[in-house]
Amino acid sequence: MKVTxxxxxxxxxxxxxxxxPPLKGKSIQSIYEGIDPLMEFKPSFVDVTYxxxxxxxKKREGGYLEKxxxxxxxxTVGICAAIMNRYHVxxxxxxxxGGFTKEETESALIDLHFLGIDNVLLLRGDSIKSEPxxxxxxxxxxxxxxxxxxxxxxxxxxxLHEDINDMAPTNFCxxxxxxxxxxxxxxxxxxxxxxxxxxVDAGAEYIVTQMFFDNSKYFAxxxxxxxxxxxxxxxxxxxxxxxxxxxxxxxxxxxxxxxEALADEVEKCETDAQVxxxxxxxxxxxxxxxxxxxxxxxxxxxxxxxxxxxxxxxxVF
Length: 317
Description:
Blueprint: H1 3-9, E1 14-19, H2 29-35, E2 45-48, E3 54-59, E4 65-70, H3 76-87, E5 90-96, H4 102-114, E6 119-123, H5 144-155, E7 173-178, H6 189-202, E8 206-211, H7 215-227, E9 234-238, H8 246-254, H9 260-268, H10 272-292, E10 297-301, H11 306-316
Parallel strand pairs: 1-2, 1-10, 2-5, 5-6, 6-7, 7-8, 8-9, 9-10
Antiparallel strand pairs: 3-4
Helix pairs in contact: 4-5, 5-6, 10-11
C-alpha cells in the first residue's frame, strides 16, 4: 500500500518510524528488537535509511596507500523485504544519489519492484567526510530531482535502455525531504522552496521533514509551502533528544535550532538519563500539539532507540 493511500484513508494522525540498517556484519535481529516494542502503535510504514560508501586507506607493499570503498550499513533492500514479510507493514527504502550510477539506481529500483515494495523516499544524500562538498558519481545523479525524474520515467515504463521492448511500468509512490529551517546549502528559504516545488512538480507525492524541535518552524514551513503552490501532504519528522552531547551535535550535523527552553532544561541535567526524560517530555508535548493541528502523520527518527519512542507514542496514540 502506498504512503499516500495510507494518508488518504486515515481518520486521524498516523504513526511511522525510521530505522538505521545495522552495521556491517551485525545480525538483523537488532532491527526486530527495535521494531517489536513499537508494533502496538500500528506503524503505517517503516522507513529504512540508505548509507553511501565511505573510504579508507590501506597500506600496501612498497608503502603506497590504496583507497578502498566500504559501506558500513548495507542491506536496506533486504531489510525492507524482511520487515514486510515479518510485520506485514509497508517499508519505505531511502534511495540516494551519492555513490550510485543511474544504472545501479535502476537495478535497485527493479529489485524493489520485484519485491512488491511500492514506496521510495528519494534523497540526494550527504557528501562523504573526505570531500568538502557533494560530488556525484560519474554517470550518477547530482540532485534528488534527478531521482524523482528517473522513477517517474520507470513508472511510465521508460528505462535507461530504450531498445528493450514490452517494458513493464513500475508503480512507486515517491516521497522527498523538506527542511523547515531550510537546507543548509540553500541561500535562503525562498530558494529552498523553489527547488522543493520543482521536485513535487516532477512527481513527488509527499514530503517528510527534517527533524525540528520547535513546532512553529513546521507550521510556518507548511504555510510557506502552500503559498508556493506545494499541495502534497507534509509529514513532520521528530527526534527525541537522549543525550547531552546532542545539544551541540544535532545543530552542528543537521543545521537546526534547539529552542532556548529545551536547551536550558538539558543544560540543567547532570546525566544522559535525565536528558532522556527531558527529551521524552518535550517530544510528547510537541506530538500533542501537532496532532491537535491534524498533521497527517508523526514520523519518528528512532536512531536505534525504540524505548524512548515507545514512551512518547504511549502518551499520544
